[in-house]
């Protein structure tokens, strides 16, 4: 959820390769998030404009808030227009073929998990670059990954799903803690982002299979 | 939705005139948007404070988000206090005379359309000044014109109207494309803003008369 | 709702003392606001993550928006991590002992009023430091004190309470006007913040006892 210059910059021999991979993952996640926004809009009987707005907000909302919070303005969406086009393409696809897209449910879950992991590690990287400390960086990573979906839910008039059930933000937090531990152990960021993103994706996918949830308070 | 120094700056012999006209249009639009926010608050049985907040948020919310996104902080509302006073005046008018104001329905629609056109072209001008490209600038213009109304709807617990029906944001997009075409053809901004704003206003008014809507997906 | 360096800086012999007192008040208010967010989350049957998010958003949301609006980024939450820890501690307390916490209703109201007063005067101080004028500064103070609670209500799917009834934001406005009057009379900020915060707290507490409300429009 960010332009290529935001990715970790410590040198490594396979740098060009891994930035490209992270960028592809980032766009995959953007697409999946946009699809989830567009599907929500279809269900709420919004018109074409509403579908495109919910697609875009869900996909780029988290990264935009992240950039505003660290003072990196104009935010990434204005510096790399690709994210807009991916979001709008996803919205149009859902508009025309939403029955077909919704049936690809498992594929969407996997892509969504990829987005979750990628957005988290990019958010953490940006936080560390802007020197806000480990705690703040993990917070920023979780926000990058989840704020877009929260805005989607608020705009469709519902209480954000992420606050209610499933292991979603918790997967980001766990991945963020792994990122911090590996960084303290001096693992280079180029490798760390992949391990930590993979951890987020794995935790998210396993939690779906196992139907895990966070505890709720006893009432 | 902006201070006078934000308006297009390329020289023209009637510059002082057109900046003043745009500023008057801007304040008219601010007033109309504030009235729509205040009326929504009255319908939701909010108290005086709620009415003033919804008036202000609807009127200046879009421009404030625009300024934050391009890094122009403190935003325009803190640099030209007139927008606050217009919003609060509109809110007080609705508080005391809301039956009378609501009956001026057609006048409010026209003023709202003027606001829509004016906010769009000012947003685009700001975007181009901050060098975010045509695509980003049109996006910023549409957001300047529509984000305040979306915040109004979210605060009153409803799904934003602009996402559901009517030609509203679409009129801004059409006007934005006209702005971009004319700018590529080297029309001076001082004239361009008027043509493009007029296009937005015309499209909006015609769409109301004709009862136009955007397509919805087949379910 | 701010780091210690944000507090009024004009010299006074008891400076260290009053900054510490204001900081303690600030943290007390943060705790009370976080508790109100966490209790709302429990009532909406959110999970542990939702409780922690609503606690944090309610407690630090207003100050974060304030900092973004004046361009002080990264905002205070990333510069003094104490606010995070207080919010999360409050959230965990409510998660485990919410019945016990809710029964301390009067104490919570008093702490909430302390937060209201403290957040207001800190917001005004920040506004004056960033030179946005008295009117803008009072606006910023009220927003610092009330925006977090509004975000809490939107996230739980409800129309913000502050827009509907009770003397809440109005107490902030009254305190803000007192702050402005005393500042014009050249009262040193170190003393002014205490008088004005006390005024907010007193008005809020009296209005609860007397069951005061703002007028609503006649329909």
The backbone outline of chain A, from C-alpha atoms, is globular
Major sheet of chain A? none
Helix/strand class of chain A? mainly alpha
Q: Count structural domains of chain A.
A: 1
What helical percentage do the residues of chain A reach?
A: over 70%
**Number of helical runs of chain A?**
8
Question: Kindly, what is the distance between the CA atoms of the first and last residues of chain A, rounded to a whole number of angstroms?
Answer: 39 Å
SS strand fraction of chain A: under 5%
As residue ranges, the low-confidence spans of chain A are 1-5, 9-14
Order of helices and strands of chain A: HHHHHHHH
Rg calc of chain A: 17 Å
Oligomeric state of this protein: homotrimer
Largest binding interface between chains: A-B, 31 and 28 residues
Would you tell me the overall average pLDDT of chain A? 91
Count of distinct strands of chain A: 0
Salient structural properties:
homotrimer, 219 residues, mainly alpha, 8 helices, 0% strand, disordered N terminus
In short:
Chains A, B, C: Residues 24-98, 110-182 form the Glycine transporter domain. With 219 residues, the first copy, chain A, is mostly helical.
Account of the 3D structure:
3 copies of one chain form a homotrimer. By secondary structure, chain A is mainly α. The first copy, chain A, has one domain. Helices cover 75% and strands 0% of the residues of chain A. Chain A has helices at residues 15-43, 48-70, 76-79, 82-103, 105-129, 133-155, 169-184, 189-210. Chain A starts with 14 loop residues before the first helix and ends in a 9-residue tail after the last helix. Mean pLDDT of chain A is 91; it is low at 1-5 and 9-14. Chains in contact: A-B, A-C, B-C. Chains A and C meet through helix 2 and helix 6 of A and helix 2 and helix 4 of C.
